[in-house]
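Intended use. Records like the one below are meant for learning the mapping from a protein sequence to its folded structure. Do not use them to infer anything beyond what is encoded.
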Amino acid sequence: MKRILLFLVVFIAGPQLAAAQTAAPFDMGSDGSGPPPQAVDPAQPQPSASPASQAASATGEGVPFFRYVIPADQMRIEGENVERSWSVYLTEEQARSSVKFNIGYQNSIFVAPEFSRLTVSFNNVEVARPPLTSSERQSDMRFDVPDGVLKPGYNLVSFNIKQRHRTDCDLDSTYDLWTDIDPERTFLLFDNPDAGMMSTTDDIRAIGVDSIGRTQFHIVAPGLSDTIAADPMLELAQGLALLADMPNTFFTYSKSEPARFASGVLPVYVGTPAELQPLLGDALPDIGTTQSARFVSTNALGQSVLVLMAPSWQRIGPLIDGITTPAARSAAQKEEAYSTHSWRKQDTQLLTGHRTLTFEQLGIPSQEFSGRVFRAEFAIGLPADFYADAYGEARLLLDAAYGPIVLPGSRLHVFVNDQLAATWPISTVNGAVLRRTPVRFTMRHLKPGVNKIVLEAALLTKEDAACLPGATADDTPRFAVFDTSEFEMPNFGRVAQVPNLWATSGTAFPYSRHEERIPLYMDSLNGDTMSAASDFVAKLANAARRQIPIDVVHAVEDVGDGDAIFLGSIGTVPAQALREAKISQTSRSVWTQQVGGEANYSEGPETTIEEWDEAVTAGWYNWIFEVEKYLKRNYDLSFETLRFLPRPDDDYLPPNSISMIIAQEPSPDDDGAWTVISAPTHENLSNGMMALTKRQHWDAVQGRITTYNRNTGVIDNVGIGSTVFIFDTPFSISNIRLVLTNWFSTNTMSFSLALVIGTVLLGIATKQMLTRFGRYDE
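Structure written out for the chain above:
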């Protein structure tokens, strides 16, 4: 009822509220040619305009150099007290420049502006702390970044938001609180005209992101279709991805067309002088007969392009090695962590067995909380051979406290990869101090790679139930968590499984475990296939924290029986690869580019005797499904777990609604994996891979098959049935025990049979022993 009244008040008073707003911090004409900004309060919002117009308004002349900073296509900050932090790399010129920071945002209508604030910090130095006052439309704020705050290299960007509800005080009302940060309107604006220049390969880290959080490398290679160019191009893609170290990297290719200069885009020219002279003209470096890898300026904005040039393609390969080897060496220094600082507060530590980490090490400081729903988030990394999804428990050892006003019925939740993993009830009155209080949760939701863990406290009080005027603004602490709290990871089984696309996307397994070249079958060398291949191997390189040697082949005879990757349109993927990957051979003819409809192999519905049998007999065996539902609901059991052995995988036939698939099965020698990446057309292949390499989407690549629907944007998976186990760790009895424990936990009937057999054998052995050493009576 309160929310309905609030909407009515805003609807009636909206025009008056809009008219009463104070002056904007800077003025812009509709064409972006307005005068320079005036010295006014930066905390006040202003009407929206394009980023180019905003940038132009800073000088009153052209468009100065600016860089977007949000590493995603959207950023919604929800809750009462929330922090978002990540790192942005700056060159020497950018760090020395005078810098302004522009942020575009809109907050929920339920956010009370008098009690809600956004704090913007760089390298833990507060730059601005304006109120959240833009519930009616998107607004912009611009601030000066004090000299000396930014430095060459990585800089920590932090948004801390405190949001309070206008009227409501219950737990559900906290989900009404949000602030959207617009990536297209949030950027750093540099006064230095040379801020866009790059001079060393380390400066590639300063490419940043575009207006939707992507990092693009546009490679112009006139010799793109030459077979000799494929391996160096994919090696270059991996090196550039490792250097940039960004979450949403993708590649485009062209033989002649340059990329549009923009934030988050780096054009790279590769070829011989004869190939590049028509494209670069006077900007072409004079290299004579030597190799050259350098940045050159080719446009009026003073931005740079990377040029890799040698007298022949045979000499371009070693030239690329000079760039990629240092990138791989730098990435390999993070053997104990996954690189996540470009989209999280810090890198994610890799846990290979029993380990205890304090909240301080995980990036959670000691803090007090006065709201209703407290959230703290951290991440842990797990290796490719993590095998503990059906047994064992991790735990939090909490050092925390809650005040006397917190009522029984409040609770602590633990979420793992957005799945509820544990609930701990608060049942005492008059408050309590928790010292190393264990909160346990099973490891079923953990996966190889980076895992997100969230601690949430839902707090009930009498004051919130009454919800008197001003109650939402009460800053009396209710809950506190201390950085001495710990996360404890137990020992777990170490054995890799194939197929397992989760391990491939998260750790690049199995392609990251060998030094020899991995065969990559490609049906043709064109812009679309090279883009898809580059996107995929670049993701593998980032996940593996090193470069993966690739050998492009065009015949299945050159693949061998070990690890391999197949990429191309479905009609050109070798039949042997489809057979090994359990993809129906029929897909070569019926999976067409008619994206959006279901596969149409027949003129109309086909009636089978199996369908009639199912319809007639369904009445008497429906109770079986009811029993399964009961077991699942009450005991977390299903007929799938009541099995002797994992079910074999069936051949998969993609419907026409699917635009692209990634499928994986064991290699013919059962010591690796064959991964097939395919689509009806090369265009679908390129577009689908570009969509999947988005960080949030890449995390969804799992199971034995991942599918992508271009029309709906839906990513779906086909689960794993039977697997091949690969041991890459030294043999130990302890590890075998943990592996067997997990396997028997997922195959309960086999465990029951083994228990019966073991009991019988024990009885026989006991009888034999008593017969020989003791007295035995019939």
